[in-house]
Amino acid sequence: MIREIVIWPDPILKQVAKSVDGVDDTIQRLLDDMSETMYAADGVGLAAPQIAEGHRCIVIDTSPRQEGQKLIHLVNPEIVKTEGVTTYTEGCLSVPGEAEEVERAAKVWVRALDYFGKAYELECEGLLSIAVQHECDHLDGTLFVDHLSSLKREIIRRRMKRLKEERASDRAESIRTAAQHKSAL
Ligand code: NI
Q: How far is the CA of 99 from the centre of ligand 1 (A)?
């Protein structure tokens, strides 16, 4: 099921997500909803807090931009080693339309449970490395905007406020239109 993505700023996005005690049906359903939501929004990664779920779950698929990759599920991910430094222009499904350069480790090694609850370790480079760091940040209540200067963050905050207001009035408008159609019947 495609879920609604929480837009920053929102207290939900600041919460620290809780560790998953074993991957059961409920967690698998959550992972399915997350990947469906990510693909529908044309994203390459999504963390559970972005759909208002406080579990340490991530989905990533960088294949549109990185050859040889596929959909991966990371439950209770832990970055165990990093190497080098790089900068990348990042965006976020919770901060639509914005992109800024963020400094990250060039390479990371992450340990996690997969879709079936099996532990694995993954060596990540390029966009996959950026995505793992970006999504792990989400689980700790940190967004890419928190890596920017306070000035840049404030400008983005204002734009997001306007976006939310526009969306709220669009919703009100569609409710009004629906009501009119109903009374016309
Ligand atoms: Ni994000």
A: 11
Between 3.90.45.10, 3.40.605.10, 3.30.565.10, 3.40.1170.60, what CATH number should domain 11-148 receive? 3.90.45.10
Residue 75 contacts residue 114 (beta carbons within 8 Å): yes
- Condensed to tens digits (0 to 9), the pLDDT of residues 101-122 reads 999 999 999 999 999 999 999 9
Centroid of ligand 1 to alpha carbon of 147 (angstroms): 12
What mean pLDDT do residues 56-61 have? 98
Model-wide pTM > 0.90: yes
38: nearest Cα among 64, 20, 9, 68: 64
121 is catalytic: no
Choice among 53, 98, 100, 135 that is catalytic: 135
